[in-house]
Amino acid sequence: MTQLAQREIAETHPRDVLLRQDRLPHIWCPGCGLGIALNCFLGALMKSGLDLKKVAVVSGIGCAGRVAGYINLDSFHTTHGRAIPFATGLKLANPELKVVVFSGDGDLIAIGGNHFIHAARRNMDITVICVNNFNYGMTGGQLGPTTPTTAFTTTSPYGNREHPFNIPYLAAGSGAVYVARWTTLHVRRLERSMIEALQKKGFALVEVISPCPTLYGRRNKMPTGVEEMEYYRRKSVIRHGADPRDVEIRYEGEIVVGKFVDVEKPTFIDLLPNDNR
Amino acid sequence: MSNNGKGVLTGEFFMEGDVACAEGAIAAGCRFFAGYPITPATEIAERMARRLPQVGGVFIQMEDEMASMAAVLGASWGGAKSMTATSGPGFSLMMENLGLGIMTETPCVLVNVQRGGPSTGLPTAVGQGDVMQARWGSHGHYEIIALSPSSPQEFFDLTITAFNLSETYRVPVVILADEAVGHMTERVVIPPPEQVHTVDRRKPTVPPDEYLPYKAEGDGVPPMAVAGDGYHIHVTGLTHDERGYPAMNAEAQDRLIRRLVAKIRDNADDIIILTERDLDDAEVVVIAYGITARVSMLPIEMARREGIRVGLLKLVTVWPFPEKRLIELAGQVKAFVVPELNMGQIALEVQRVVGSRARTIPVPHPGGTVHDPKVILEAIRSAAQ
Ligand code: SF4
C-alpha cells in the first residue's frame, strides 16, 4: 500500500459518533434497507442543526425497532406499537427535546395504528420515520398492514386477499403537517426530507420504502436487495404535491414518491391551556 | 381555591376520594397525567385536567389505556413525575406497559379504582378483584409495590407515598383503591407544603463516559439519568446488561431479574406499611385492606363487646406481602379472618404464609357492594372457637 493510499483510508466515519460502536455489527440481513434508512437519518441529524444532546429516538418492536439500540443518542426501545405514545409522554414532559419515532410499518400502522392516527390528529410535535418493507421481518415474513394485495407472505400463502394501508393518505387524513415518501434508492432526497421533517413543528412523517430481501423479496420475485432496488428504480416516480389518495402501492406497481404534505398548524403544545389561576 | 408555590392545596376539605388522589399526586410533585375515561376513576382524570395546567403540568387524554401507560413511562424518562388512573378493563390494557416500566425501572404511579369484574362487570360498583392482577398481571416474574387506601384522606396520603416509593425504588407503584373509597366524600386535610415529604429519584453523579445506567447501588437501585441530561442512555424492554444494552443470554437474565426482584424483597421492611389495632392480646386477627378494612371495624367492635379478643391488621401495603409480620402473629393467634371483595385472593396468600401455624378463614364476596358486617362477625366468632 502506498503512503497516499494509506492516508486515504479513514479510521473513522464522520457519522460514527452517532452510532454505538460497541453494539455493532448490527443484526440486519445483507441487502436489508434499514442500514440505508439509518444512514440517511444520521446524515439528516448532523445537517439538521439540532442540538443532539436534546434529540431522543424512540422505537417500537421489529427489525426497524432495533434502530434505537444503535443510535448514540438518548434512545428508547419500547413495546410493540407503543413508540408513539411513549414519545408523546417524553415530549410533553420535556418540550425542549426533539423526539423522533423510528419504527416499522407493522409496529406503527398495525398494532400501533390507533396511536399513529391520534398523534397525527393532535399534531403532536414528533417526527416519525416509518420504514415500510411490506411485511413483518422480525417474526419471519408475515402479512403486514401494508402488504400489497396478492403478495405472498408466510400468512398469506395463497396471496394477500386484503387491501393495504396507503400510509401517506392515512397520515394526511389524520392531520399530519408533513408527509413525504422515498425509497432507499433515493438516499439524497430521503435525507433532505428527513431534515425537513426534523425541523418541522408538529407531526411529521417520512415513509421509507425499504427492501426486505430475506423475507418479502424472496417470496415475491425479488430475492436480493439489489432486485428490490431495481424494482424501485424502474417503478418509482417523483410527484411532489401528489394527492395522498393517489399514492397507494399495488403489487409490482408504481411507487409514487415525493413530498405530499407540508402545511402549518398549531401543535398540541402550542394549544396547551396555561391558566395559572 | 388557594394555590401555593408547590401547588399543594393546603386546607381542610369535604373531598371525594378520587379528587383527594389527584391532589395527593400534585402535592407529591406529579406534573404529568395521561389517561382514558373509565368509571369509577374518571374523576381523577377530570381533576388532573383542571389542576395540572395551574401548576405548570401537562394533562393528556390518550386514545386508550395502552397509550396512557406508555405516555406515563415516556414522561418519566422526560424527567416528570407521572401518573395514570383507571379501573379493571383499563388496568388489563395497562399490563403490557406496566411490564415495560418494571423492566426499564421507570418510576410512575398507576391508580386502579377497582370495580366489579371480570370484564365490564359492574362499572359503578365496588370490587377488590384485581389484587392478584396487580401482583402478577404482566407477563414474566417480577416484584411490585401496591398500596390500598381505606378513606379519601388515606387516598391523598398514599398517593404521595406511592410517588415516593416509585422514585426511591424505580418501580411503577400501583394504588389499589376501590369504587367505595374513590367515590366516598369526607374530610380531607391537606397539610402546608413544607409538611409534605417528597422524594426525587437519585441522579447519576459520574460523568457520561463513566455512567452505567443499570448498575445498581447498595440498595439495588441504579441512579437515573433521563433524556436530555447528556448521558445518551439506551433504555430497552429487552433483557439488558448494566450499560442498558440488550443481552440475549441466560446470565444477563439471571443478573437482571434477580436484582429487580431483590430490590423490592430486600427492602420490604422499609416498604411495608401496616395499620394494627388491638393486636397485643388478639387471638383472632382480621386481615383486610381498602374499603373492607373499614367495614371490618364494626364487626370487630361487636366481637370485642362479646368478649372475643380480636384485632385488625390492615394492609396499607398489599404488595410486597407482609410475610414476616404474619409469621410472627401466626405464633400468637388462633386464626386469621380475611374478608375481601373477591372470592379469596389475599386469603390464599395468608394461607400460603401461615400454613398450619394458624387457621385462615376466608370471607369471600364477589363485590357489587360491601360485606354485611354480620357475615364478618360470624367468621370472627367461628375463628374464636
Ligand atoms: S428480515 Fe427483512 S427487514 Fe428484517 S433485517 Fe432481514 S431484510 Fe431487514
In short:
The complex is a heterodimer of chains A (277) and B (385). By secondary structure, chain A is an alpha/beta fold.
The secondary-structure class of chain B comes to alpha/beta
Strand segment count of chain B: 16
Shape of chain B: globular
Q: What is the fourth-level CATH superfamily of the largest domain in chain B?
A: Thiamin diphosphate (ThDP)-binding fold, Pyr/PP domains
Alpha plus pi helix count of chain B:
14
Q: Enumerate the spans of chain A where pLDDT stays under 50 for 5 or more consecutive residues.
A: none
Largest sheet of chain B: 8 strands, mixed
Top CATH class of chain A = Alpha Beta
Q: Greatest chain-chain interface?
A: A-B, 42 and 46 residues
- Summarize the amount of helix of chain A as a percent range: 25-40%
Helix percent of chain B reads 25-40%
Task: Tell me the Rg of chain A in angstroms.
Answer: 19 Å
Strand content of chain A: 15-25%
Number of structural units classed as domains of chain B: 2
Secondary-structure element series of chain A: HHEHEHEHHEEEHEHEHHEE
CATH first level of the largest domain in chain B = Alpha Beta
* Terminus-to-terminus distance of chain A: 74 Å
Q: State the secondary-structure class of chain A.
A: alpha/beta
Mean pLDDT of chain B: 97
* Apparent shape of chain A: globular
Total individual domains of chain A: 1
Explain the layout of strands and helices:
The complex is a heterodimer of chains A (277) and B (385).
Chain A (H helix, E strand, L loop, with lengths): L2 H6 L25 H14 L7 E5 L7 H4 L3 E4 L5 H11 L4 E7 H7 L1 H10 L4 E6 L2 E2 L5 E2 L23 H8 L3 E6 L3 H13 L4 E6 L3 H7 L5 H11 E3 L16 E8 L15
Parallel strand pairs in A: 1-2, 1-3, 3-4, 4-8, 7-8, 9-10
Antiparallel strand pairs in A: 5-6, 7-10
Chain B lengths: L10 E6 H12 L1 E6 L6 H10 L6 E4 L3 H13 L3 E6 L1 H16 L4 E9 L5 E5 L4 H6 L8 E3 L4 H18 L2 E7 H4 L2 E6 L43 E3 L13 H16 L2 H4 L2 E4 L6 E5 L2 H5 L1 H9 L4 E6 L1 E3 L3 H8 L4 E6 L5 H9 L4 E6 L8 H12 L1
Parallel strand pairs in B: 2-3, 2-4, 4-5, 5-8, 7-8, 12-13, 12-15, 15-16
Antiparallel strand pairs in B: 1-9, 5-6, 7-14, 11-13
Helix pairs in contact in B: 1-2, 1-6, 3-4, 11-14
The structure holds iron/sulfur cluster (SF4).
